[in-house]
Amino acid sequence: MPWEGTNGTTDVERQLEAPMPWIGMYVAGASLVCTLAMAADAFHGFWSKKYWFPSKYFALNATSLTLLAVAMKLPVDLTTRMYAVTDRLAKVSSLVFLSTAMANFLTSLGSMGDKDVLMNVTALGILVITVTANVCIQVIQVHLSQWKAALLKKF
């Protein structure tokens, strides 16, 4: 085939996979910014002896939700293959990161008005539902493919 590469991958696949390290750096940068903001809130809370971690740097707003959505690219992406243990670990750790961010967002709800709470919680809910649905789809898909492979080995 004219499009076939040396190891069975097409040239188009190689071209599409070329920017993946940059996308990974972008996701890692967004995760780092979120983590530093959460750590700054924790440090600020301990320093000012407010142990409920006041949301000064990582409050529930459009900016932090956008950063969190970028950081959630790994569990949302259905096109990535999950063959290696490290791939699955990256997806699970992204879900743990989402849970931690949601716990840090809870304290910022007390300082918002009713309309702001409704809009921000709705946006966060859409993100959580999207991430959960995509992870469930991919887990089911992986299990079905493993089940089919086991059946084919028997026959």
Short description:
By secondary structure, the protein is mostly helical. The chain contains six helices and no strands.
Q: Strand share of the residues?
A: under 5%
Low-confidence stretches: none
Overall tally of domains: 1
Shape: elongated
Write down the oligomeric state. Answer: single chain
- Could you report the average pLDDT, rounded to the nearest whole number? 83
Would you list the SSEs in sequence order as H and E? HHHHHH
| Main β-sheet description | none
The total count of strands amounts to 0
What structural category characterises the helix and strand content? mainly alpha
The termini sit apart by 32 Å
By DSSP (H or I, 4+ residues per run), the number of helices equals 6
Helicity level, as a percent range?
A: over 70%
Radius of gyration: 20 Å
Transmembrane segments: 23-46, 58-76, 88-106, 118-140
Keywords: Membrane, Transmembrane, Transmembrane helix
Provide keyphrases for this structure.
membrane; 6 helices; 0% strand; 155 residues; transmembrane helix; single chain; elongated; transmembrane
Task: Explain the overall architecture.
With 155 residues, this protein is mainly α. It has one domain (11-154). It has 6 helices and no strands. It has helices spanning 11-17, 20-47, 62-71, 73-76, 85-105, 114-154. α2 (20-47) packs across α3 and α5 runs antiparallel to α6 (114-154). The longest helix has 41 residues, at 114-154. The radius of gyration is 20 Å and the shape is elongated. 15% of the residues are buried. The chain crosses the membrane at residues 23-46, 58-76, 88-106, 118-140. Keywords: Membrane, Transmembrane, Transmembrane helix.
